[in-house]
Specification:
single chain, alpha+beta, Chitinase A, domain 3, 2 domains, seven-stranded antiparallel sheet, 32% helix, globular
Length: 198
């Protein structure tokens, strides 16, 4: 019987990597290469995101507490008398009002300006109403808990500054210009209160 020269074999048998015993090795090598490529990309993405030093570090409850403590101390040093509600809203009565406090269903006329602790104004009734007074039915629309509790302390003519920790405002997620763990400061004045008609 004549011995066949390797070069006379059909092409697919000449290819060593195409022989059945090499299929498993080749598949395993391809998997290892894919996994190695995935890890290399993950390391590159992670290291470049860590190198981006332009971004501010994420806010934490501890950062908020430090800022809040400093702001409260500054207000005390300026001669302000700060009280606290049951929920934990800090407030300063700038001007006493007269008459009853708002109840659910009362129509109230409120002027307000909302600040971050760095002095940035994030909202104000003057942004929305020509006369700068927001007229609404109390408790008919959802408000952040701290602002809601602050409104409940007002009477007509009262001017009260509210300092609202994030857990009574927008919390861990923030909202628009308000970042996570941001304490809010509101200057408020109640212009009118019309009791609910039974």
């Amino acid at each position: 019987m004549q011995e066949l020269d390797v070069y006379q074999l059909p092409h697919f048998l000449k290819c060593i990597s195409c022989r059945p015993e090499n299929f498993k090795k080749k598949a395993m090598l391809n998997r290892i290469k894919t996994i190695a490529l995935f890890f290399a990309i993950a390391i590159i993405v992670t290291s470049t995101s860590c190198l981006n030093s332009d971004k501010e570090p994420p806010r934490t409850p501890e950062m908020e507490q430090e800022e809040l403590n400093a702001a409260l101390q500054q207000l005390i040093d300026e001669g302000n008398d700060i009280d606290t509600t049951e929920l934990g809203v800090y407030y300063i009565v700038q001007e006493e009002g007269t008459g009853p406090n708002p109840q659910a269903g009362d129509t109230i006329s409120l002027e307000y300006t909302g600040f971050l602790l760095d002095g940035t104004i994030f909202d104000a009734s003057a942004y929305h109403y020509e006369d700068a007074i927001w007229k609404f039915v109390y408790k008919e629309i959802p408000l952040i808990p701290g602002f809601d509790e602050g409104i409940a302390m007002l009477s007509v003519g009262a001017e009260i500054d509210l300092i609202i920790p994030s857990y009574l405002a927008y919390g861990v997620y923030g909202n628009g210009a308000i970042g996570p763990y941001e304490t809010l400061f509101f200057a408020t004045k109640l212009h009118a209160l019309n009791p609910k008609v039974e």
